[in-house]
């Protein structure tokens, strides 16, 4: 999408993946750690990352698909 390829099959597959993996409560499951912390000592998990980046991608896709100005 950043390169302007909104209709590219890879973008469409990515959007489809996000929609297919969204849970019933509207969130996404992220079972892995999202930060490094100190390896073998502790790891970080940013609980909002799964929702933030998924929603950001879907909103950007919708905005880019709505036209050249992004107006809905």
Question: What does the model show?
Answer:
With 72 residues, the chain is mostly helical. It has one domain (15-65). The protein has helices at 9-21, 49-65; strands at 35-38, 42-44. Strands 1-2 form a two-stranded antiparallel sheet. The chain is elongated.
Question: In brief, what are we looking at here?
Answer:
Helix content is 42%, strand content 10%. It is mostly helical and 72 residues long. The chain has one domain (15-65).
Shape assignment: elongated
Number of domains: 1
Side by side, the strands of the main sheet go 1-2
Distance between the termini: 17 Å
Evaluate the radius of gyration: 15 Å
Beta-strand content bin: 5-15%
Share of helical residues: 40-55%
Mean pLDDT: 86
Largest sheet: 2 strands, antiparallel
Sheet/helix structural class: mainly alpha
Instruction: Work out the number of β strands.
Output: 2
| Number of helices, counting only DSSP H or I runs of 4 residues or more | 2
Q: Spell out the helices and strands N to C.
A: HEEH
| Uncertain runs | none
Name its key features.
72 residues; mainly alpha; two-stranded antiparallel ribbon; 2 helices
Strand and helix map with partners:
Blueprint: H1 9-21, E1 35-38, E2 42-44, H2 49-65
Antiparallel strand pairs: 1-2
């Amino acid at each position: 999408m950043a390169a302007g390829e909104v209709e590219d099959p890879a973008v469409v597959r990515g959007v489809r993946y996000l929609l297919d993996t969204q849970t019933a409560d509207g969130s996404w499951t992220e079972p892995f750690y999202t930060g490094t912390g100190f390896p073998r000592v502790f790891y970080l998990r940013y609980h909002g990352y799964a929702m933030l980046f998924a929603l950001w991608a879907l909103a950007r896709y919708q905005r880019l698909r709505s036209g050249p100005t992004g107006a809905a």
